[in-house]
Design goal:
Protein name: RagB/SusD family nutrient uptake outer membrane protein
Number of strands: 16
Structural class: alpha+beta
Largest sheet: 2 strands, antiparallel
CATH architecture of one domain: Alpha Horseshoe
Main location: membrane
Organism: Pinibacter soli
Number of helices: 18
Pfam families: SusD-like_3, SusD_RagB
Shape: globular
Keywords: Cell outer membrane, Membrane, Signal
Strand order of the largest sheet: 1-2
CATH class of one domain: Mainly Alpha
Helix content: 25-40%
Length: about 600
């Protein structure tokens, strides 16, 4: 958790890139004082922090009822089947997050001394923006720390994590207690307030001084200066809209059943209000892009991205990966020269409703167990490769049955599916992994999607005001879910009768919203955390389907082994050994 004051070779954000040396030269051993006159070096502190942001696709889905993996040594598989301990926690972010917070705190303590530019107006504006980024990134890391490590201690206290407001030196007292969950949430909100004050909602160029937000006119009223600092060249850096998104994520976590406690003041209504600010900015309940559900495979849109611009579905993303096929190499079926890591479960397949909007178990659904893949929610075929699907550059038929005679069949090879399904979401079908003709395509990894924010509003609004209550906003949970389902193409021929049935019952609407979230965000690393914050059953057996001819055989693919206390992650055992004041969450050793 400690960072030495000596910073070795901090990465510099510049067009020249980074040189690598086998042996560091003396000039690379920089001191803090040097950041005052070297703006690129100073900015490098934040660059390091950006590079450590937890991955959006962390594949924690393997540890849920949505998927298993054929990687027998995968840490999430081991965690789900009984090997999760405080000394072996794949979801821990403790060391990485506090390391980043150390960089941020050191940066904030010195940022006002840095000469950011020769032009004093640009220098002042850079200083404002850099502070905003730092505050926003600190809130981001505190959110991830809370999600992974907050919980109830043995004496029933709802605790958060350590709050480290200053840079810690070798002389600092590290043996401090965890802060309360409430205090951690308040700190996140405070940092997000500071971030929003210092940052534009989005980084766009202006043409006149009148377009410069008033809060930045204290630094400059010249468009060219504003554009240099807050314009399009800063896209994909932390901005005000991202800060609003992490406010939603934090409040959604805090309002959830797992964290209900008298000491916790976050409400569902406040969460809905937070999400509504983003929905209003986007344009309302019906403003989600028609192709947002297939953000990963909108080929012309992805290939046309330039200048840091986001697709309409995306609030924040990583940089474009050009000529890339990593996701396909990892997740294509073996006949397409992939290693088939992500194996969707029958549990998830059953969550997709029929085209008429009814769940498959509903008498009105028209579901036929002898033809289980016919007439389903269109998202099913877009997100999952099932027996008889076509995939890849040649639209090859994928047969997954154990008797299919194909390497794609269940458990035929180490790279074969264990459930009878392969993941299709996240993949581009125009990537070729054939060693004789390998070709990649452009990809990007999201960090925040608008659909996530809309779903957060629906969940919170339903809990706060019921399915059709709007709390003063222009739309309800019902309106949001109706728009999402309409975009998906379900219930369009019958007025979405099942949704109409649910809108009069908070409990039925809750189940529908949770199911829509499960489908819309599948394989995007939400399910692991959602099950825990909802306090749902963690031990659903992961099931598969073996299809051979007209025979459909349901089977158990993997048994889960979680204890009840595992709704909350542990404080790392190594930290427990070092610091006696660091209370552990109940149940963990």
């Amino acid at each position: 958790m400690k960072i030495k004051l000596l910073i070795l070779c901090v990465f510099v954000l510049s067009a020249m890139g980074c040189k690598k040396f086998l042996t560091p030269e003396e000039e690379n051993l920089k001191t803090i004082d040097q950041m005052y006159t070297d703006a690129a070096y100073a900015q490098g502190f934040l660059v390091n922090v950006y590079r450590s942001i937890p991955a959006y696709y962390d594949n924690s889905d393997y540890a849920t009822d949505d998927a298993v993996t054929n990687q027998k040594t995968n840490t999430y598989l081991q965690m789900a089947t009984g090997s999760w301990t405080s000394a072996n926690s794949p979801v821990s972010v403790w060391n990485a997050a506090y390391g980043s917070i150390q960089y941020i705190n050191l940066f904030l303590e010195n940022v006002d001394k840095v000469k950011w530019a020769q032009d004093p107006e640009a220098a002042k504006l850079f200083n404002i923006r850099m502070k905003g980024e730092a505050y926003g990134l600190r809130a981001l890391y505190m959110y991830y720390l809370l999600r992974a490590h907050a919980g109830f201690t043995a004496d029933g206290q709802l605790m958060g994590v350590l709050i480290l407001p200053q840079f810690q030196t070798t002389g600092s007292n590290f043996n401090v207690p965890r802060a309360t969950f409430e205090d951690c949430v308040k700190l996140i909100y405070k940092d997000l307030d500071s971030a929003e004050l210092c940052l534009p909602v989005e980084y766009n160029d202006v043409t006149t001084s009148a377009q410069i937000p008033d809060r930045f006119k204290v630094a400059t009223q010249r468009p060219e200066v504003y554009n240099r600092v807050m314009g399009q060249y800063s896209r994909q850096l932390y901005n005000g809209l991202i800060a609003k998104s992490f406010r939603v994520r934090t409040s959604l976590l805090a309002a959830s059943p797992a964290f209900q406690n008298a000491s916790n003041t976050t409400t569902w209504a406040k969460t809905a209000d937070n999400a509504a600010m983003i929905i209003d900015y986007k344009g309302g309940a019906n403003a989600l892009p028609a192709n947002g559900g297939t953000y990963y495979a909108n080929t012309s849109e992805i290939d046309g991205l330039s200048g840091g611009i986001n697709p309409s579905e995306i609030i924040w993303r990583e940089n474009i990966l050009t000529n890339n096929g990593d996701q396909e190499a990892q997740n294509y079926p073996p006949s397409l020269f992939g290693t088939g890591y992500m194996n969707p479960t029958q549990n998830l397949v059953d969550a997709f409703p029929m085209l008429n909007g009814y769940p498959i178990g509903n008498a009105n659904s028209t579901y036929d167990a002898t033809k289980p893949y016919v007439g389903r929610d269109p998202r099913f075929a877009k997100y999952i490769i099932y027996n008889g699907s076509t995939a890849g550059v040649s639209n090859a038929v994928i047969n997954t049955g154990s008797q299919s005679g194909s390497d794609n069949g269940i458990n035929v090879r180490e790279t074969s599916t264990r459930t009878g399904y392969y993941m299709k979401k996240r993949l581009r079908m125009d990537v070729n992994r054939n060693p004789s003709a390998t070709s990649g395509k452009n990809h990007y990894n999201p960090r925040v999607r608008y659909t996530e924010m809309y779903l957060a509003y629906a969940e919170a609004a339903n809990e706060a005001w019921g399915p059709t209550g709007a709390g003063g906003h222009a739309y309800s949970a019902y309106d949001i879910i109706k728009a999402i389902r309409k975009r998906a193409g379900i219930g369009t021929t019958n007025g979405d009768a099942y949704l109409e049935e649910c809108k009069g019952d908070v409990n039925k609407m809750r189940e529908l919203i949770r199911n829509e979230r499960r489908i819309e965000l599948c394989f995007e690393s939400f399910r692991f955390w959602d099950l825990r914050r909802w306090k749902l059953n963690l031990n659903e057996v992961a099931k598969g389907m073996d299809v051979n001819g007209t025979t459909y055989a349901l089977f158990n693919a993997e048994t889960r082994n979680y204890d009840d206390y595992m709704y909350y992650g542990p404080v790392p055992y190594s930290e427990q050994l070092k610091f006696t004041n660091l209370a552990q969450n109940k149940g963990w050793k």
